[in-house]
UniProtKB/TrEMBL annotation:
It is a multi-pass membrane protein. It comes from the Eukaryota. This is Lysophospholipase D GDPD3. The gene is GDPD3. It comes from Tursiops truncatus (Atlantic bottle-nosed dolphin). Belongs to the glycerophosphoryl diester phosphodiesterase family.
Length: 372
């Protein structure tokens, strides 16, 4: 045993020192990715806190606030049109109990006159979520699988309490509310590409729909925007098909790949492993149990907040990824205090429901220098 320790301890010490050295200086081993854009201000669903989500009006508003990235989800209609829609079902968005894929594009219903903003401050009480300040209600978040990349919540399971609305983005109050807008039409992805030819866009694909993936890839090629359109998906099986359909597009981490990077980081192996992804789009742990409720049980949410904060909020990890050209973007942040935390950690940018609020923050403060 003593002879084993005699050789093992020096070897382990050498490994630890090398790992720390290359964690801080990864460019000695890896050529960093060079991105065509830097997404400091990302608009979640086009900016769903200030206009109705995923509408052309929302995206135009985000562009007016000098957004650097539009974060969108896509579905396929029955007649093969790629549309911008977060949900497969039209129930939450339009009040119609049909799937997007069961209707032709021209048959798609209008959005409701008001849609709830998911990531608004509140407190979960059983099946209900009590928003702050008092008197402002917010519909509850359903249970969802917790992950370091943060799954997008599914449609609500409970009925909403009465709501107070805030439709004026200039007087934004991030406490839970419904968004409004004059534009209630679902849009084609092609129309978005035509309207914003040089705007970087993150396109999330939720299911293994090969026709949808193929058509998105074809549209990206047709409009010559391979370098400024991100493939995003929670599922590695879907991402594999996305990369095969258009390998020129940059990719974001999937959930399993996010876990893998965390594991490599804590084992000290990350500096020695290649990273094909160019974007880590992750939830910020500080929003759990405030604006993001991955579990229906408040105790689990509190535990998730503590554990994820300990695991993810590591400046050395974020700085290592940034030095390798992997841009770290935190979502979905709607309060100035969270903007501050994200940028102090060294994040490239933030995805928000309120592009006006984030633009005001960036213009007034600029991104704070990462804390040492």
């Amino acid at each position: 045993m003593s002879s084993l320790l005699y050789y093992a301890l020096p070897a382990l010490s050498s490994y630890v020192m090398l790992s720390i050295f290359f964690l801080r200086r990864p460019r000695l081993l890896h050529t960093p990715w060079v991105s065509a854009f830097c997404p400091r201000l990302g608009a979640h669903r086009g900016g769903s806190g200030e206009r109705l989500e995923n509408t052309m009006e929302a995206m135009e508003n985000a562009v007016a606030q000098r957004a650097d990235l539009l974060e969108l989800d896509c579905q396929l209609t029955r007649d093969g049109v790629v549309v911008v829609s977060h949900d497969k079902s039209l129930s939450r968005q339009s009040g119609v109990n049909r799937d997007v894929g069961s209707l032709d594009f021209e048959e798609l219903p209008l959005y409701k006159e008001e849609l709830e903003v998911y990531f608004s401050p509140g407190e979960r009480v059983g099946c209900q979520r009590r928003a702050e300040p008092a008197g402002v209600g917010s519909q509850p978040q359903p249970p969802a699988l917790f992950s370091p990349l943060g799954p997008t919540p599914s449609p609500r399971a409970c009925s909403p309490p009465p709501q107070q609305s805030f439709s004026d983005p200039s007087s934004h109050n991030p406490s839970g509310h419904f968004a409004h807008g004059s534009d209630r039409h679902m849009v084609r992805l092609e129309d978005v590409f035509r309207s914003f030819p040089r705007m970087p866009i993150s396109v999330e694909v939720k299911e293994q729909n090969e026709e949808l993936i193929r058509k998105i890839a074809g549209l990206v090629r047709h409009y010559e925007r391979d370098e400024i359109t991100i493939w995003a998906s929670e599922k590695s099986s879907v991402m594999k098909k996305c990369k095969a359909a258009n390998p020129e597009m940059p990719t974001a981490f999937t959930i399993s790949r996010g876990f893998w990077v965390l594991l490599l980081y804590y084992l000290g192996l990350l500096p020695f492993i290649s990273i094909p992804e160019r974007f880590l789009i992750s939830f910020l742990p500080t929003i759990i149990n405030r604006t993001y409720f991955p579990f229906s049980c408040s105790g689990l949410n509190q535990l998730a907040a503590v554990v994820s904060k300990w695991l993810i909020m590591r400046k050395s990890l974020i700085q290592h990824l940034e030095q390798r050209g992997v841009q770290v973007v935190f979502w979905c942040l709607n309060e100035e205090s969270d903007f501050e935390v994200a940028f102090r950690l060294g994040a490239t940018g933030v995805i928000t429901d309120y592009p006006t609020a984030l633009r005001r923050y960036l213009d007034n403060h600029g991104p704070p220098a990462p804390a040492s």
